[in-house]
Design goal:
2 copies of one chain form a homodimer.
Chain A: H1 3-15, H2 21-34, E1 43-44, H3 46-53, H4 57-69, E2 73-76, E3 80-83, H5 88-112, H6 115-134, H7 137-155, H8 158-178, H9 190-199, H10 203-219, H11 232-237
Helix pairs in contact in A: 2-4, 3-4, 5-7, 5-8, 5-10, 6-7, 6-9, 7-8, 9-10
The first copy, chain A, binds a DNA duplex (30 and 30 nucleotides) through helix 4.
Chain lengths: ~240, ~240
DNA sequence: TCATCGAATATTGTGTACAATTTTACCGTG
DNA sequence: CACGGTAAAATTGTACACAATATTCGATGA
């Protein structure tokens, strides 16, 4: 590559926002599932998705592969991809793993969290409460998951952050399948109380609240009739 | 598909062992890394690997993608794959995560393990000790990892099994990078003692031994000079 | 009516050609 | 001889054609 070409490249990288189609497609499909706009069991046909996002089938294929590693999508050999449908048994294992991880995470948070970080958590919780009031369920689901992941980041172990991120995603699927459709999924101010315990430096209380929070959420799961989403195009036209 | 074709397919599926090239390639590359025959940092050129295993570049590409999700290889955009080189910091996080998971796992094992399963563990430990005696380091590395994963399977949570499997793989890389090249990696009869504590139904002791085992292994890590493997063909000719 | 078959269609799987990028090797210049 | 710079080679990235497989649907006969 000549010197001229190299500098041209730097200019382009800086100005254009490199609108990374694969990453963007990944985020949109992932969000649609985690925000429960795409129901578990929904067929994800490669060509249809490719047309929706205006990318080639190979891009869709890579995205679906990644989602399948996160257990958000199930890849059935020769039969294509569907939004994953964890069994109730698997859902319970998700909560068991979360209790294990998040108990450790929150104790570490109490030790490590700085004033500034606690302020950020409060802001997140406040945004959650707003969503509750305005009935913005979709945003609430997202923020609620982010709260747990944010705690894990504070705890400082990237492996646990990654693992918990997958667990949170699977929790969303579990709730879509087994959660009470009416009523709230878990206590409205659970997160608020947890932040207060962190701020007070009370590790035992924070851990107790977290475990209670998770167990209550798990206990609210129950089998019920299920139906899948049909029209992919309609669903993604909103996003 | 006609009736005739369908039955033909069943016959083939039963008789031929479907020698699944992709799966086999995955296992061979994965094993070579985990058994430390391929050093961290070694470049994994797609075409070379394709020639070695007699598969197309697309197969190699999928295999490398999978290994990268397991954090066993690093995929550098436009610059190809290398055997992953976790930093010392990352290695410490691996051990931190392992202590968390394996403490829970072993307590669950003590509660759940049946006589038969304990016998299987003993057999595994005995095979490990054999390797120590005969100096079969490669097999020892494999069995040693399997011991931990077997415990996780007994504990009964598939998510923890999968997570720990990744952690064990990364441990192998960490030891390759930061372990003492001479001398043993960890206490020869640590595993044996753990099984005995499980058999005695002593959860506290089993957990204490496990945490000590992991911490000692972690403590033995230290930075030292590194060099990568060169000749991929020579390495895979042995397997 | 219902089950079964099989052709037609739809969808997924894979190798390969070509594009984009990086790496290497070489050359002239100070 | 070191230091850019350039062209050539090597390597990775991606779309697409075609193969393999699954699904749909109308026809046929018990």
């Amino acid at each position: 590559m000549t010197v001229v070409e190299e500098s041209l490249k730097r200019v382009r990288a800086g100005s254009s926002k490199a609108q990374n189609n694969e990453e963007s497609t990944y985020r949109q499909i992932s969000s649609a599932i985690l925000e429960q706009r795409l129901a578990p069991g929904t067929k994800l046909t490669e060509e249809v998705l490719g047309e929706i996002f205006n990318v080639s089938r190979s891009v869709i294929r890579r995205v679906l592969t990644k989602l399948s590693f996160e257990k958000v999508v199930e890849l059935r050999p020769n039969r294509g991809a569907v939004v994953a449908s964890p069994t109730l048994e698997e859902a319970n294992q998700v909560f068991e793993a979360r209790r294990l991880v998040e108990d450790a995470v929150i104790r570490s948070c109490v030790e490590r969290a700085e004033k500034q970080e606690i302020a950020a958590l409060k802001k997140l919780v406040s945004a959650e409460l707003d969503c509750n009031r305005t009935g913005d369920r979709i945003r609430w689901i997202r923020l609620s998951g982010e709260f747990h992941i944010e705690l894990a980041k504070l705890a400082g172990n990237q492996l646990l952050v990654d693992f918990l991120t997958d667990l949170v995603a699977q929790t969303s699927l579990a709730i879509a399948l087994y959660g009470q459709s009416n009523g709230s999924i878990c206590g409205d101010d659970d997160h608020q109380n947890i932040v207060e315990a962190i701020e007070a430096g009370d590790a035992e209380k924070a851990a107790r609240l977290m475990l209670k929070h998770l167990s209550e959420c798990q206990a609210s799961l129950t089998t019920r009739e299920q139906h899948t989403s049909e029209d992919l195009r309609a669903i993604f036209s909103k996003s």
